[in-house]
Write a structure and sequence with these properties.
Elements (H helix, E strand, L loop, with lengths): L1 H42 L4 E2 L2 H9 L5 E6 L7 H11 L5 E7 L4 H13 L3 E5 L8 H19 L5 E5 L9 H8 L5 E3 L2 E3 L7 H23 L11 E4 H10 L12 H11 L4 E3 L2 E4 L5 E3 L2 E3 L5 H22 L6 H11 L1 H23 L11 H29 L7 H28 L16 H6 L16
Parallel strand pairs: 1-10, 2-3, 2-5, 3-4, 6-9, 7-12
Antiparallel strand pairs: 5-8, 6-8, 10-11
Length: 478
């Protein structure tokens, strides 16, 4: 009998200690996030609406020569439609698109060559090595080829813009970058997912995450003069910055062994003393509605594909970040590095705190006994404080989503939040496995893992790729 009561006491002790720890760790994370969002609110940081006068000034500015760099691996299903749609939609004349393709990716290479035959503005850069390598290696190859093309053109490219094969560039994006390039050498435009159907719960998690990150968090980083990490697309670099990076890194502007070469690009630019700008602007379109000047794309809509994609982000930022960046800069810089690297821990804490809440409400509902220590006023205050912070977090996320997409995606934000946390935990475990396996093999560079890309149905139907009879571009570019 004594053994039985000892076991009960031990169980209550472990349960109480676990719940108590989870509640207080969750509170620390919640307070951290709450304080940052309050700073954003107090400072009035939000996307800025451009007036009609400002838009006219942007559109009338003399056009600099822009090189759009697109790295490709197994993109035959979207590359022709993406390039054709962008050439039709971009309100800018003075630019070229450079498509980087591997020699052993025959279908994508054939599609890229068809585009080059149709459009004077399209160049194909065939990699010198078989793929896949890393996206950074491919983009470095493209950058070196652009420098060689300048000799043939007799002109230097002023701006280098990084995009992906599934990106649709906003019609005014190049005009905006062209106007802002005098202010900064590193310019990041917002990146948003296309609007998804309500039932696309996995794909819609990206609506929530990028809305918060690209209408709130990055604006705070900019205000605090903290490094703005590149999103890997919609990132514009001045010629001066590109050449400086290449000179500093043995002819490479990106770190080739990094899985998130874009993340490290922002830190390298700041370290060299170049000005960065997060260009989050809206304007009133021809229909009288607010519109973001941003890159749009579809993100994965299956759990497996999302875990695969996010595991690359986590492996690069969390695991490789510690070795490639260590801890640098002042307090604010190190603080945001810590936030970037604590994402996986945060997901685990959120999952654990959800379990605690379910435990609390189920025991209350079923009148089950709760360990006495967990009924103390202090624990009750912490528990309901966390519940209040959760409501605040959901409202904050809803306000960001509403600012980009309107009211329709708001209802399922709590459901998508749960799904997102499970995906992040799965991605963390997969990232850890990937890095561990690479270390065991003494493998310094991790190869580019393919994410299946798609474009909106209307674009796929309008530009059906190889079977389309698309006329050669008539734009004058040089």
């Amino acid at each position: 009998m004594n053994t039985y009561f000892n076991l009960i006491g031990f169980y209550e002790f472990i349960l109480s200690a676990s719940v108590f720890s989870i509640l207080f760790i969750t509170l620390v994370f919640n307070v951290d996030n709450f304080v940052l969002q309050m700073i954003i609110w107090v400072k009035g940081l939000r996307p800025r609406m451009l007036s009609a006068k400002e838009m006219n000034a942007i559109n009338s500015r003399e056009e600099k020569l822009i090189a759009i760099m697109v790295a490709n691996w197994k993109e035959a299903n979207v590359i022709e439609q993406m390039v054709s749609a962008n050439l039709d939609g971009i309100n800018y004349g003075n630019y070229f698109i450079f498509l980087g393709v591997y020699p052993n990716d025959k279908d994508t290479l054939a599609a890229a060559n068809r585009l080059a035959a149709r459009y004077d503005q399209v160049y194909v850069v065939e990699n010198t090595v078989f793929g896949p390598t890393t996206k950074g290696q491919m983009l470095n190859q493209i950058a070196r080829e652009i420098i060689r093309v300048e000799v043939r053109l007799g002109r230097d490219f002023d701006i280098f813009l990084i995009q992906d094969a599934e990106d649709i560039v906003h019609s005014h994006a190049l005009k905006l970058i062209n106007a802002l390039q005098r202010q900064a050498d590193f310019i990041q435009l917002p990146v948003f997912s296309y609007k998804r159907r309500q039932r696309d719960l996995v794909g819609s998690t990206y609506l929530d995450e990028f809305s918060v990150s690209h209408t709130k968090d990055l604006l705070l980083r900019q205000d605090l003069d903290v490094t703005i990490p590149s999103a890997g697309v919609g990132t514009a670099l001045s010629r001066k910055l590109i050449l400086k990076l290449m000179a500093q890194q043995d002819g490479k502007f990106l770190i080739e062994e990094a899985l998130t070469e874009d993340y490290f690009l922002g830190f390298a630019s700041k370290r060299l003393g170049f000005k960065s700008l997060f260009a989050c602007f809206t304007y009133e379109n021809e229909n009288g509605k607010k519109e973001f000047i941003a890159t749009r794309e579809y993100f994965p809509n299956s759990i497996i594909a999302s875990i695969k994609q996010k595991s690359r982000w986590i492996a690069g930022i969390v695991f490789q970040g510690k070795s490639l960046l260590a801890w640098q800069g002042g307090f604010a810089e190190r603080y945001f590095l810590l936030r970037d690297r604590s994402g996986p821990i945060n997901s685990l804490i959120v999952l654990a705190s959800m379990g605690v809440m379910i435990f609390y409400f189920s025991t209350y509902g079923m009148y089950l006994p709760i360990p006495e220590v967990l009924l103390s006023p202090l624990v009750q205050i912490v528990f309901f404080s966390n519940l209040g912070f959760l409501i605040f977090h959901l409202l904050n996320r809803a306000s960001a989503v509403f600012s980009v997409y309107g009211i329709s995606p708001l209802l399922l934000i709590p459901v998508r939040g749960i799904i997102s946390n499970f995906i992040n935990i799965g991605a963390t475990f997969r990232a850890w496995q990937t890095v561990k396996a690479a270390q065991e093999k003494n493998q310094k560079t991790l190869v580019w893992e393919k994410t299946h890309h798609e474009l909106p149905v209307e674009i796929m139907n309008r530009y059906p790729g190889a079977v389309a009879d698309i006329r050669r571009s008539e734009r004058t570019v040089v």
